[in-house]
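Dear Dr. H.,

I hope your travels went smoothly. While you were away I took the liberty of generating a structure for the chain from your last submission, since the lab meeting agenda had it listed for discussion. I wanted you to have the full record in hand beforehand rather than looking at slides cold. The sequence, exactly as received, is reproduced here:
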Amino acid sequence: MMQYFLTAFASDGGTLLNEMFAFENDEEAVEYGRKRLKEENCDMLTHRMTRSGKLILFHR
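The corresponding predicted structure, in token form, is as follows:
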């Protein structure tokens, strides 16, 4: 399993969501990440998901 980090930011630069989770592949992780962002009403805010320093998902 690979570790992923999902972070969402407020407009002032503060952190609203900062989670770590593990999945077998990037597709599963992105699906889960998008779900979590929507649940926390952060899907339209700046957010990123990384794995081993690689940017997997980004929205500005």
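Two observations you may find useful: The radius of gyration is 11 Å. The chain has a mean pLDDT of 97.

With kind regards,
E. W.
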